[in-house]
Amino acid sequence: MSSNDTTEIIEDGVNGVKQVNSSNGVSSDKSAMRSGPGYASVFNPKCWFEPEKLHPAVSELVYWRDPKKSGVVFGSAFLVLIFLTFASFISVLAYSSLLVLSGTLGFRVYKMIMQAVQKTNDGHPFKELLESEVTISDEKAQEISAAVLQFFNNTAQKLRSLFLVEDVFDTLKFAGVLYLLTYVGSWFNGLTLIILALIAMFATPKVYEANKTVIDQYLELLQAKYAEVATKVTALLPFGKKDKAQ
Q1: Taking a C-beta distance cutoff of 8 angstroms, is the pair 19, 25 a contact?
Q2: Residue 202, Cβ neighbours under 10 Å: how many?
Q3: Predicted pLDDT of residue 239
Q4: Least confidently predicted of 82-86, 88-92, 118-122
């Protein structure tokens, strides 16, 4: 199953959820908001380098459309991961929560004192945040669930195909990747890989966007070379590709 097939299957699953929501009386305004790229796009690696195909919320963050927002998200996630290398998850969660609580409590008390001294009635300093929506709607939950479920199902099917050698050449490529991962695992632990993945997630798309022309030229050369080698290797295999008739 190709990556294009994967994308189509995931998008079909999400579109199916949209149709069900529409038939159940979901407002047309919300449906229109979901007409663009859905949450399933984050599971397609190609979409990360095509911002118009990536979910708007994710695209805004990884392409640094709002540097302050992206900086806060990246910085917070990066610091949490760094702290996790020195302490347990529970400790990091507790200390992080205490830090945030100390800031909000201190600011709240400060505003109360200032209002008492200046005899003003400015109201709660976090009023806008308290009134903001923090719950996940049924529509959004169903959309996310459909995307995750379809990704899981597709991954399971692909792994079955690879481990049961449906296509010899694809299985050999998979074996090569697994062999490389044995070296990666000896060099880095899981948390380090997550940190590197976070950095790549916030850096690679923006770097690609800024140097798209040059990078595309080299990618085309690599793809052409890979296709040439793959064709030669497949031709040498006595059983070659799987029977298309099947």
Answers
A1: no
A2: 20
A3: 58
A4: 118-122
Burial 6-22 (b: 16+ CB within 10 A, else e): bbebbbebbbebbeebe
Asked whether residue 199 is assigned to any structural domain, the reply reads yes
- Express as a percent the part of the chain with pLDDT over 90: 38
Please give the helix or strand (H or E) that residue 177 lies within, else none: helix 168-187
C-alpha to C-alpha distance for 191 and 86, rounded to whole angstroms:
11
Domain-located, residue 34: yes
Categorize the per-residue pLDDT at 29 as very low, low, confident or very high, splitting at 50, 70 and 90: very low
pLDDT tens per residue, range 184-201: 888 888 899 999 999 999
Quick check: is 170 in a domain?
yes
> Which two structure tokens, joined as six digits, stand for 138?
């049924």
Residue in 158, 149, 119, 120 with CA at minimum distance from that of residue 39 = 149
- 208-240 per-residue burial string, b: 16 or more CB within 10 A, e: under 16: beeeeeeeeeeeeeeeeeeeeeeeeeeeeeeee
Q: Is residue 201 part of a domain?
A: yes
Q: Which domain holds residue 148?
A: 3-87+138-210
Question: With b meaning 16 or more CB within 10 Å and e meaning fewer, what string describes 89-118?
Answer: eeebeeeeeeeeeeeeeeeeeebeeeeeee
- Output the pLDDT for position 134: 80
Q: Is the pLDDT of residue 101 over 70?
A: yes
pLDDT of residue 231: 82
Q: Assess whether pLDDT exceeds 50 at residue 43.
A: yes
Separation CA 243–CA 246 (nearest Å) = 6
Looking at the structure of the chain, the number of domains it has is: 1
Angle, CA 134 vertex, CA 128 and CA 139 arms, to 5°: 135
